[in-house]
């Protein structure tokens, strides 16, 4: 076919055929795009769940570690140290609560933040490392037959707490059906803190009344 013949053929192609080739998507292309979007969405959902889980566990471990630090200071210095919880500001503060004022200044350690005053160790939960939403302090309870909200956990010179029942710190992340929670339980005799992340069933150490109080807190609107 000569060049002139080719040009003549192109010039006589129907306008509709040329337009179909030059613009728009075919049904096959649209189906491919929909399939790719579905695959990406399916991959992101479990990733988001895993991220929330990791953030929650890390925050709960941080709280438990700081309470273990307060307990160790109380034992080492034969004094009392407390962790004060502030749900409104989503933070907690570790400080000396004994009578020896010389111990009010906390020792510098790996737990210290550069901006903390010398007599306080302050932890902002929203500032903890994590991806996505930050963890929130939902409440702190005194467990037992008559549970009650408390705002601090104090450790004595033997590592014990000043409570007669377990103390419970409740953390949450997310909202609606995606809301998750974790508990930090503090034994009143030993002062040891244990983490219970993502628990659907509350720990057996808790009384039914305390479990009910925690459930009511979780049911409160955001």
């Amino acid at each position: 076919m000569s060049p002139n013949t080719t040009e003549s053929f192109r010039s006589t192609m129907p306008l509709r055929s040329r337009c179909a080739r030059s613009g728009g998507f075919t049904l096959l292309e649209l189906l491919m795009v929909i399939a790719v979007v579905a695959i990406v969405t399916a991959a992101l959902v479990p990733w988001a769940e895993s991220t929330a889980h990791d953030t929650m566990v890390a925050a709960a471990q941080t709280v438990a570690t700081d309470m273990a630090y307060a307990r160790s200071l109380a034992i080492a210095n034969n004094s009392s140290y407390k962790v004060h919880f502030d749900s409104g500001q989503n933070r907690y503060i570790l400080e000396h609560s004994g009578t020896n004022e010389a111990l009010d200044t906390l020792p510098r350690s790996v737990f210290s933040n550069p901006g903390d005053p010398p007599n306080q160790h302050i932890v902002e939960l929203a500032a903890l490392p994590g991806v996505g939403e930050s963890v929130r302090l939902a409440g702190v309870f005194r467990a037992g037959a008559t549970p009650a909200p408390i705002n601090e956990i104090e450790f004595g010179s033997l590592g014990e707490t000043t409570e007669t029942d377990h103390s419970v710190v409740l953390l949450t992340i997310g909202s609606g059906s995606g809301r998750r929670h974790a508990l930090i339980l503090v034994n009143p005799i030993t002062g040891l803190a244990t983490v219970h992340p993502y628990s659907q069933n509350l720990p057996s150490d808790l009384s039914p009344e305390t479990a009910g109080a925690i459930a009511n807190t979780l049911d409160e609107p955001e």
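Residues 105 and 117 are 9 Å apart (CA to CA). Residues 27-76 form the longest helix (50 residues).
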